[in-house]
Specification:
By secondary structure, the chain is mainly β. 13% of the residues lie in helices and 37% in strands. The protein has a domain of 144 residues: Alpha-Beta Plaits, CATH 3.30.70.2660.
């Protein structure tokens, strides 16, 4: 924890799964993944395990532990979202076949810190939330199953304690281009981003580089992050 008591020591969480798709927004209809996990996807994994209004996750680094491999799939999807005011949705009428380029056999180490927000209660403190996180990870608890970009790609997870050696990242360096950093939502959008609209969402991007298997994530107020 730092001196002002608002930010925790780093946590290291290893996550892995059979497939992943960290969708490139510029690809529109077809689902094509970035080469590696995005900071927003990493935050989503962490929030699936622990989220409260009093805290937020700051992702600082993502280590790529498995070789970057691809898998091309064609699958059926529903082409619209059911409205709460509608009587139902007829899948046969809305079914669309789309191609996807996904990652396979992925594994990452997420480095992140907890930071207190302005929504703290009288009994909220970092020690409380750090201990809560440790208990939840040790028991495999989560608010919903963490996933790797898309909900159908479930993630397994385990905590790497500070006294444990880190898994070795892949020995690969490459320019990843402009990558989605995160999406800011105003009060009209729900937390699961299901009914997100253009006016309610403000995406930001950064120039990403994989350096010997490590993706360093700039802070949100850095000049490297652009909207």
């Amino acid at each position: 924890m730092n001196g002002n008591g608002k930010r925790s020591a780093p946590f290291r969480l290893k996550v892995w799964g059979r497939n992943a798709c960290f969708t490139r927004p510029e690809m529109k209809v077809e689902r094509v993944s970035y080469d590696v996990m995005t900071p927003s996807a990493a935050r989503g994994v962490l929030e699936a395990i622990l989220w409260k209004p009093a805290i937020r996750w700051l992702v600082e680094r993502i280590d790529v532990l498995a070789p970057i491999r691809w898998e091309s799939v064609r699958r059926n999807e529903v082409g619209s979202v059911m409205s709460p005011r509608s009587s139902g949705l007829f899948v046969e009428e809305q079914r669309q076949q789309r191609a996807g380029l996904f990652l396979r056999e992925v594994a990452y180490t997420i480095h992140a810190r907890l930071e207190m927000t302005d929504n703290v209660g009288p009994e909220d403190n970092l020690t409380k939330f750090q201990e809560m996180l440790l208990r939840r990870v040790e028991k495999g608890q989560c608010f919903h199953r963490p996933y790797l970009g898309c909900r159908e790609f479930a993630a397994d997870f385990t905590l790497i304690h500070l006294n444990e050696a880190l898994p070795e990242p892949i020995p690969e360096t490459r320019d990843l281009g402009w990558m989605l950093y995160d999406i800011q939502h105003d009060n009209r959008a729900d937390r699961d981003h299901v009914h997100c609209c253009t006016e309610a969402c403000r995406p930001s991007f950064f120039r990403a580089e994989l350096n010997k298997g490590i993706l360093h994530v700039p802070s949100s107020d850095s000049e490297e992050v652009r909207q």
